[in-house]
Each structure stands twice: as structure tokens, then as C-alpha cells.
């Protein structure tokens, strides 16, 4: 691929997109993930105090979401590190899902 072809492809991919808009979107997504994590921890603590149980479903959703993010990054970037992290979060999500199902069976 020549330099001109690469430049043309890049321009076509980013057509109509503003760099400030892209960076703002990235920052917003990051803030959303941080807020989701903090709120999940607060809910875990409150649920444990008030109801005397651990809300495994929250941790499952959080782990599964992170697994999907890292699988996406792996498919786009093809880095082994991303696949390793995605696999670890997937195993974590399966464990939390199993714990939640067991918890539901005990109710």
C-alpha cells in the first residue's frame, strides 16, 4: 500500500469526525466505566449490610463487560496481552455467574 493510499483510507475513515469530539467521547466512556465500578462497589457494600448477601449479579455484569472490552481490543489490535486479560475476565465472569445461580437456587 502506498503512502497516498494509506492517507486516503485514513481520511475516508475519519470523514466528518472531529478530533476533539473523538477525545471527548473517549474521556466520557472512561468516566462512565470508573463511575460504574465505584457505584458497583457501593451497591455491593450496601447490599451486604442491608440484606446480608453479596450481589453476585453486579460483579458478574462488571466482569463480563470488561471481558467484552478486552476481546474487542484483542480483535482490533491483535495483542496477546488483550486476549489474556479478556480470558481472565471471562473466567471471572463465569465464576460469578455460577455463584449467582447457586445463590438463586438457595433462595
Form type: elongated
Report the sheet-strand fraction.
under 5%
User: How many domains is the backbone divided into?
Assistant: 2
The count of strands amounts to 0
Alpha-carbon Rg, integer:
20 Å
Taken in chain order, the helices and strands follow as HHHH
Derived from helix and strand composition plus strand pairing, the structural class reads: mainly alpha
Helix content: over 70%
Low-confidence blocks of residues: none
DSSP summary: helix tally: 4
Provide mean pLDDT, rounded.
Answer: 85
Distance between the termini: 61 Å
**Biggest beta-sheet profile:** none
Verbal overview:
The protein is 87% helix and 0% strand. The chain has 107 residues and is mainly α. α3 runs antiparallel to α4. It contains four helices and no strands. It folds into two domains: 53 residues; 54 residues. It is elongated. The relative contact order is 0.08. It starts with a helix and ends with a helix.
Write the layout of secondary structure elements.
Elements: H1 3-13, H2 19-51, H3 56-77, H4 80-106
Helix pairs in contact: 2-3, 3-4
Task: Give a brief outline of the structure.
It is built from 4 helices and no strands. The protein has 107 residues and is mainly alpha-helical.
Amino acid at each position: 500500500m502506498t503512502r497516498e493510499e494509506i492517507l486516503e483510507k485514513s481520511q475516508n475513515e475519519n470523514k466528518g469526525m472531529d478530533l476533539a469530539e473523538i477525545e471527548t467521547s473517549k474521556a466520557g466512556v472512561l468516566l462512565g466505566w470508573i463511575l460504574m465500578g465505584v457505584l458497583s462497589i457501593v451497591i455491593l457494600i450496601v447490599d451486604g449490610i442491608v440484606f446480608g448477601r453479596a450481589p453476585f449479579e453486579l460483579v458478574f455484569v462488571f466482569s463480563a463487560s470488561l471481558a467484552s472490552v478486552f476481546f474487542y481490543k484483542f480483535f482490533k489490535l491483535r495483542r496477546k496481552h488483550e486476549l489474556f486479560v479478556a480470558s481472565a475476565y471471562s473466567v471471572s465472569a463465569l465464576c460469578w455467574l455460577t455463584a449467582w445461580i447457586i445463590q438463586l437456587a438457595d433462595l
